[in-house]
Amino acid sequence: MTMLNERVPAKPPFPDKGDVVLRRRKTPDGAAFYGRCLRLIADMDETENLFRQSTMAPAGTLRVDLPARIGRLIVAPALPEFLERYPQINIELGITDRIVNLVEDRVDCALRVGLLPDSDLVARPMFELPLINVASPAYACCLQASA
């Protein structure tokens, strides 16, 4: 009680002497404080319960942006199985090699190749892709001749 009374700059919400409450009657400030606390706790419980309903299947629209090659070769072939497994999810798939602004373009997640510029966004490495350079023999000869 003493810590609460020190923290709230008003008349003590619960009159006390040390850690012993002398009476059960709340002051008007204490009653207002208590009412606000009850509303905060109820709001917090409601917010937490939004995400605890594990019996519900995932549903809603998911906006995803991918580089063209990854979208075409890896993600697009896997979409039918994903959509069959999660029929309540609607995928809005953007396939572009340009960097999109996730906030302005209302994109939920994006997959990018390479290093990210400094950003406040959260990024996680997913996998490494091997990089190989290939050229036709004729082009390789031209490069060697110009070197």
Please explain how this structure is put together.
The longest helix has 23 residues, at 28-50. The chain has 4 helices and 5 strands. 39% of the residues lie in helices and 14% in strands. It has a 3-stranded parallel beta sheet with strand order 4-3-5. It has a two-stranded antiparallel ribbon with strand order 1-2. The protein has helices at 2-7, 28-50, 68-85, 137-146; strands at residues 16-17, 20-21, 60-66, 89-95, 109-110. The chain folds into 2 domains: 2-50, no CATH class; 57-147, Periplasmic binding protein-like II (D-Maltodextrin-Binding Protein, domain 2), CATH 3.40.190.10. β3, α3 and β4 (89-95) form a beta-alpha-beta unit. It is α/β, with parallel strands linked by helices. This is DNA-binding transcriptional LysR family regulator. InterPro entries: LysR-type_TF_proteobact-type, LysR_subst-bd.
Properties at a glance:
4 helices; two-stranded antiparallel sheet; LysR_subst-bd; D-Maltodextrin-Binding Protein, domain 2; alpha/beta; 14% strand; elongated; single chain; DNA-binding transcriptional LysR family regulator; 147 residues
- Judging from the principal axes of the Cα atoms, what is the shape? elongated
Going by helix content, strand content and strand pairing, the class is alpha/beta
Query: Approximately how much helix is present in the residues?
Result: 25-40%
What would the CATH topology of the largest domain be? Answer: D-Maltodextrin-Binding Protein, domain 2
Largest sheet: 3 strands, parallel
Number of domains: 2
CATH architecture of the largest domain, please?
A: 3-Layer(aba) Sandwich
CATH class of the largest domain: Alpha Beta
Radius of gyration: 29 Å
Mean pLDDT across every amino acid position = 79
The CATH H-level superfamily of the largest domain is: Periplasmic binding protein-like II
**Number of helical segments?**
4
What is the N-to-C order of secondary-structure elements (H for helix, E for strand)? HEEHEHEEH
**Quick one: how many beta strands?**
5
**Taking strands numbered 1, 2, ... along the chain, how are they ordered across the largest sheet?**
4-3-5
